[in-house]
Design brief:
2 copies of one chain form a homodimer. Chain A is of the alpha/beta class. Chain A folds into 3 domains: about 10-60, Orthogonal Bundle (434 Repressor (Amino-terminal Domain)); about 65-170 and about 305-330, Rossmann fold, CATH 3.40.50; about 170-300, Rossmann fold (3-Layer(aba) Sandwich), CATH 3.40.50. Helix content of chain A is about 40%, strand content about 15%. The first copy, chain A, is built from 13 helices and 12 strands. Chain A is elongated, with a radius of gyration of 26 Å. In chain A, about 45% of the residues are buried. The structure holds a DNA duplex. Chains A, B: It holds the Pfam family LacI. Chains A, B: This is LacI family transcriptional regulator.
Chain lengths: ~350, ~350
DNA sequence: CCTGCTTTCGAAATATTTCGGACCCGTTCA
DNA sequence: TGAACGGGTCCGAAATATTTCGAAAGCAGG
């Protein structure tokens, strides 16, 4: 029948013939239906790519995609708000709208993975930025099938290899914090981590340990604790540390909010910071600047991370070639007033560097 | 041909036959295409109504108006974040989506009032919640003409009479704060307001003055200052107060963030709180709980305000009768550890009440 | 080897889009 | 005046796309 099989019209049927499947099957792939085997889907996808076929629906919805959805666990942390600020900033310059969404607030109709992904398409969303752990692989899968751009920010759990993610150099940050304390002359340095299962906590811990070992200090198990990223955790851990026979002279807290708890408990027990105890936080949120005393903290470029995440989405959307699926932005130590040399013993050897600027 | 014309399957073709047009024509009407004569469209529409036919697309698609837009000045204040949390909470239960938008981040194309309003319609938005001052009357006008529900939360400027607004009982809050300090025995009580032009600052100030006058204390001008709702303002004002010949023994700050600045400056100058200086904040954000010492603060039901705002939108959307255009939610004083009786002079007359619970 | 279940696929039914032609109307020109 | 022309609107045949639904194939568990 079709004399000129190849160059004619570029229709669904043509693509189907090329791959050797039926038209409905190609249609299903184009529209992200589920009942297509992975292998078949891949072949069709390839042909689609080659021929550049677009469904009429795709053809007409040219401008769309002016919105991204951002999903948070909760907005109770300064961390999340900062990331959101970064996203908003980039959204403003790139003229995107931002749909905010909070997990844990699951509503009347919890909306399965498939519906949720389909909805993204229906509403013409450019993609999704996830700042939470609670995003199952089923959901990621549904997105991938529909080729919806998705970016995970600083995932608590390591993300699947083929998902884009944005994070910070937690290991380097942990090392910087501990090194700073070592340089001030501290030898007894505690670490209060976040959830021990979280990727980022672990990286910070290992950075801390690396610095200690490099400085010839043994890592004491009883100086290391973990718990949620909340002030109460700082309070609890601080109590435990102060109850020790040989309490540390410095603390590296895994987040500013934990450090805030430490600060509160220190005041209650009349432990002066930084004179009697040095304290380093992590995140570099406004909390760190406004606390009493202002907190030395490892600053994460949270806004930058938000910006990057959106930029990632936009580049995926525009079909740009993306070299790396993972971006890791640099953390840096901001020295404020919560760290000082330890009181009793001046460090041996060379004199300690004076307060950095 | 079709023996049983009516009761069979309810397909597009059936409807077309009923009206006496072709299937494509019905399809066009269903999908809102333009190339159908008005008369024809009406006849088809009637048949559609009669038969109850729905296109597969309509069958699965969601009902419109599932999104509200929320506009903030910035997200740098805990205040805004709390309100947003309230909105998100209500959004979850009412299955609405939230589009977040920040003014001051004006983008490449600033989008005039009319376009902006029109866009709300085009995108099927249910309404808008404004948590900012920067929303001109031209913009409000454009919304009103199109009958787009809009709610202003705690407007800095008094809103036009015919715009819905949600606020808190600032006057009562100011009075409660000052009364609390009076009851503790303070007589020299300073007020650090927010922007003097802001409605809410003024209300708090007047509440404070009312309490003072009721307590027979004269209002000292030099104890009253104003400025932005930021820690730096608290620092500045605190410096000024401490430089006074006769500094106050208590401070009522117009917001928790201002109070945080006061706290920082107090520590720097070794003024102990609450022993040497009592301090009351306003807002009741998390900052107040986590500060050192925890802040006595006039708590605003910020989340509740957010919830109310959205609920207002929803009720307008559903055409419910709305009795009042203004809702004012109650503030209440939360006593924590930053207030105590003044050191030097025990109050005359009756003994001061012990620390409230 | 059956049985019941699931997965995957495509034929047929259904829906939508494209595109050309009919029709109407005003304008131009013989 | 009326035929010829141009441009617009509206419709439907045919082309194209999507959905439904059942059949085939694979896969436990008897």
């Amino acid at each position: 029948m079709d004399r000129l099989s190849r160059p004619s019209k570029l229709t669904l049927a043509a693509v189907a013939a090329e791959v050797g499947v039926s038209a409905p099957t190609v249609s299903k792939v184009v529209n992200g239906r589920e009942d297509v085997a992975e292998a078949t889907r891949a072949r069709v996808l390839a042909a689609l790519q080659r021929t550049g076929y677009k469904s009429p629906l795709q053809r007409k919805s040219i401008p769309e995609h002016r919105a991204v959805e951002v999903v948070f666990d909760s907005l109770n942390s300064a961390y999340g708000v900062e990331v959101l600020n970064g996203v908003m900033e980039h959204a403003a310059v790139s003229e995107m709208e931002v749909i905010l969404s909070i997990t844990g607030r699951q509503a009347a109709s919890p909306l399965g993975p498939e519906e949720r992904a389909q909805r993204m398409i229906d509403e013409g969303r450019a993609g999704m930025i996830v700042v939470t752990s609670a995003f199952g692989s089923a959901q990621l899968e549904a997105f991938k099938r529909r080729q919806i751009p998705i970016v995970v920010v600083d995932p608590l759990n390591p993300p699947p290899a083929d998902v884009f993610s944005v994070g910070a150099s937690n290991w380097a940050g942990g090392k910087a914090a501990a090194s700073h304390l070592l340089e001030l002359g501290h030898r007894k340095i505690a670490y209060m981590g976040g959830p021990s299962t979280a990727e980022c906590s672990q990286a910070r811990l290992h950075g801390y340990m690396a610095a200690l070992m490099a400085g010839g200090v043994t890592v004491e198990d009883e100086y290391i604790s973990s718990g949620p990223f909340k002030p109460e955790n700082g309070v609890r851990a601080m109590k435990a540390l102060l109850a020790l026979d040989d309490p540390p002279t410095a603390i590296f807290a895994g987040s500013d909010s934990i450090a805030l708890g430490v600060l509160a408990e220190a005041r209650r027990q009349d432990v002066r910071i930084p004179e009697e105890m040095s304290l380093v936080g992590f995140d570099g949120t406004h909390q760190a600047e406004e606390s009493v005393p202002p907190l030395t903290s490892v600053s994460q470029p949270l806004q930058e991370m938000g910006r990057s995440a959106l930029s990632f989405i936009l580049r995926q959307k525009n079909g740009e070639e993306i070299d790396s699926r993972r971006v890791e932005l640099a953390t840096h130590l901001v020295v404020r007033e919560s760290t000082a040399p330890p009181r009793a013993s001046t460090p041996l050897g060379e004199s300690p560097p004076s307060r950095a600027e």
